[in-house]
């Protein structure tokens, strides 16, 4: 953009004629000297022109025309202070001459005195607002003063009057760029290129703003034009490299990176993006070299260490990957991607403790990231923390079905079932094997575990049936066959014939498996299990005596006869809640909810368990579900109020206490709640 804007002689004459008449005070002698000075000026004999006007001023020192003439000559010869002095004299003689103010503004602008230049142009606008060209002067001066909004306003006013002024359009595009309004800049450049295709030269700037608006293909096309005749521009070559990189044209990007570094090998900052390209192209060793050069210059760039770590990870060098990722995390512990990469690296190394640490850190930022949750569950699974893994698998499946997650859940349930079996908690083991069988009816180990646990619980018929299913799914497994034979023998029945029947392979579908009729045996009287009714009676009796351990045992044995008995499951869950075994209590409440999604009692009691654990968010979620199912369930409102009170959210607590008081009819209880409300309202 040109700093000096000088008006043509024709335009100056128009201004002079518009704003004031030629001075009538000019004497004949002074007028002759004025004409002579003009001749000297025409011949570029500025010294003679100046001395002639000075002579005229001695004769006619009160004429503005003589001062404007000498001021103009001073300006043309670079004697700006003298020019300003002459214009100031002229403006005292002709205060309403907009031209004089514009001329002063041009000189002040050239001298870098932008504030006074702006004031001069503004004064000219006040005197002669019809002169639209002055908007360009105001816009340019605001451009220099970095008052971009004002510059934009004045450029647009000028272009409304002179829409084909290319220079003003380019300046406006530049101001939009400096203001970060890249879309607007693109629009201006596009219009200029369309209107003046042969005169347009701002390809570099146009390409740059296209890049900023992520129009990488268009940016590359325009920058290729900018490169014509300017092949050695490091700026254009570098931006072309980045534009092609962002649209995945790696080979072209590589070409321009190489050209850029050939022009200037010291562009160290660019080596970060160059290294990223090399890493994406599988050029690991080259990428590492570039990252190291970049890090040497920028040792505190966390992104560089992270990306370097990722390259090492791709090259199966987990130790160096972790080293650099940990360095990145030390510099910037807020970056979630770094935490994810560290978690995956430690997971790959089977350092599950550290993997779990970083999965948890990443999940604080992205709590709904299903992939992170799944990986955390796999880590817990690998650490034999089956219950926690199962909870997460279920959480994921509740949000969206995923076959792989369901398979993992089945595997974790089987593993936990065997873990419980080893701990002689056969009743609980049965429940987890049962879940696994339901999710994966072709998994032999689930049926085998289910059979073993039932055998220990005295349910021989169920055990025999499931041993047979395990054998049918894994006919080559001698352990399965031997356990079945041993149980049959213990049950005073013949063992399997020497030629065992041919069972379907593990690839059989479920309907084919059901065709196989198990051989039930008559159980010896000494091993006869108690009936359902006897087990429930025994459990109730133990409960009355507060023998909760045996009550749980008897109820658990009874529920084997009817796994869908919601009442028994609720009793078991409540007993676990009563004895403080929260995880098992929640597990049983979840079983009830699976069988009966509208069971408000299960949700309410589950909420109480969460309340005991001070997990108020899950607690509130459960009680809200109760209200959804049973809007007149008063204690759900009261419980939510208490949870919000514990969280310190007084206004929410009051909201639910008010709702509760509208449902409760017991005067004594109401009195207690009213006291709570008064206490909270006083805070």
Question: Your description of this structure?
Answer:
The protein is mainly α and 683 residues long. Helices cover 73% and strands 0% of the residues. It contains 38 helices and no strands. The longest helix is centred in the middle third of the chain and has 20 residues. The chain is elongated, with a radius of gyration of 44 Å. The relative contact order is 0.02.
How is this structure best summarized?
It is built from 38 helices and no strands. The chain has 683 residues and is an all-alpha fold.
From the spread of the alpha carbons, the general shape counts as: elongated
Could you tell me how far the N terminus lies from the C terminus, measured between alpha carbons in angstroms? Answer: 65 Å
Determine the fraction of residues in helical runs and give it as a percent range.
Answer: over 70%
| Spans where pLDDT lies below 50 across 5 or more residues | 1-24, 493-527
Give the number of DSSP strands. Answer: 0
Computed structural class = mainly alpha
Average pLDDT score: 87
Percent of sequence in beta strands: under 5%
Radius of gyration: 44 Å
Give the biggest beta sheet: none
Count of helix runs: 38
What layout of secondary structure does this protein have?
Blueprint: H1 9-19, H2 28-42, H3 46-59, H4 64-76, H5 80-93, H6 98-110, H7 114-127, H8 134-144, H9 148-161, H10 166-178, H11 182-195, H12 203-212, H13 216-227, H14 234-246, H15 250-263, H16 271-280, H17 284-297, H18 302-314, H19 318-331, H20 336-348, H21 352-365, H22 370-382, H23 386-399, H24 403-422, H25 426-439, H26 444-456, H27 460-473, H28 478-490, H29 510-515, H30 532-544, H31 548-561, H32 566-578, H33 582-595, H34 600-612, H35 616-629, H36 634-646, H37 650-661, H38 667-681
